[in-house]
Amino acid sequence: MSSVLSIVTAPLELFIRLRDEIIRYQTSRKARERLFNALNYEVKVYNDKIDRISDLGKKAIPLLRSLKEKPAISKFNKLLLIISPFPILCMALVDAFIATCKRCRSIEKNEAFMHHLFFGSPILYDFVKRMANTYEAKDTVRIGEDYYTFFSLYEDEILKDVKESDMEGIVKEARSYIEAINRFALKTRRINRVARRAFIRNFSRFHQEISKKVIFEGTIIDIKHYVPRKLLPVIILLEEISIT
Fold first, then answer.
1. Per-residue confidence at 223, pLDDT binned at 50, 70, 90?
2. Would the pTM count as exceeding 0.85?
3. Cβ atoms of residues 187 and 243 within 8 Å
4. For the ranges 1-5, 57-61, 148-152, which has the lowest average pLDDT?
5. Rounded distance, CA 56 to CA 230, Å?
6. What does the alpha-carbon distance between residue 223 and residue 217 come to, in Å, rounded to a whole number?
7. Which of 69, 73, 140, 240 makes a 20 to 30 Å CA pair with 172?
8. In sequence order, which residues have a C-beta less than 8 Å from that of residue 196 and are 6 or more positions away?
9. Which residues fall within 8 angstroms of residue 108, CB to CB, at 6 or more apart?
10. In this structure, are residues 206 and 141 in contact, taking their beta carbons and an 8 Å threshold?
């Protein structure tokens, strides 16, 4: 799941960073303004899903700390109830990503606009092209080598205000909870059945939906460093939690 979340959040995080920077320094031009306006709805939906996932993470992290310091099955059961909606929100986030790719496909067809965007902001031009080319028919997306190349080309723009030490600290803290979580995950008889079933059902549904909507080509590359920092703890946890 986490690889999918990284993939769908990273490019839109770059777009939002660029939008905020242009607004801050008042250097926007017509082509860029029109692009932001054209994608305004899709970005609002995306941000809403990010915020809702982040809010659940804020509820889960204090409980994780408590579970690590003073393990108790009651805390673990409460944690399961909190995180069980994550897969549903993640599906909505993937749908928002697909909708943005589809919208970029429509924008790309306007040749005169794309011409002006190319000279006004090459990075936004490449953003539209990459998102548009990612979209496939019938609301699916294809993730391959070209998609990852986009991030390597514009890494400086995406990560210019991100401190490596901060990212490492977030990853280290999140992973420190995994041992405590998985210790309880093995004790299936003591896990609340309702919470466990909800968790497994939602995760299974997520994977079923993703297999229909996201096509992967080649090796899946780890791009967690490009995702919104407030989502990183959740992504790490979803990557390593194992409850079956």
1. low
2. no
3. no
4. 1-5
5. 11
6. 15
7. 73
8. 80, 188, 243
9. 114, 128, 129, 132
10. no
The CB-based long-range contact list for 10-14 (8 Å cut-off, 24+ gap) reads 10/151, 10/158, 10/223, 10/226, 10/227, 11/127, 11/130, 11/131, 11/150, 11/151, 12/43, 12/46, 12/97, 12/100, 13/158, 13/226, 13/227, 13/228, 14/127, 14/154, 14/157, 14/158, 14/226
- 112-164 residue pLDDT tens: 999 988 888 888 899 999 999 999 988 999 988 888 888 778 777 766 665 66
DSSP 8-state code for residue 224: G
Question: Tokens in use for 64?
Answer: 């994780």
Residue with tokens 């992967």: 216
- Closest by Cα among 212, 207, 213, 219 to 144: 219
Residues 153, 139, 104, 106: is their CA dihedral positive or negative? Answer: positive
Number of neighbours of residue 195 by Cβ within 10 angstroms: 19
Instruction: Please give the Cα distance from 123 to 14 (Å, whole number).
Output: 10
pLDDT at 105: 96
Domain ranges of the chain: 2-240
> Phi, psi at residue 143, to the nearest 5°?
-110, 115
Q: Stretch 219-239: mean pLDDT, rounded?
A: 64
Q: Phi then psi for 70, rounded to 5 degrees? A: -135, 85
Summarize pLDDT for 6-29 with one digit per residue, the tens.
Answer: 777 777 777 777 776 555 544 446
Distance CA(186)–CA(242), nearest Å, equals 9
Q: How confident is the model at residue 244 (pLDDT cuts 50, 70, 90)?
A: very low
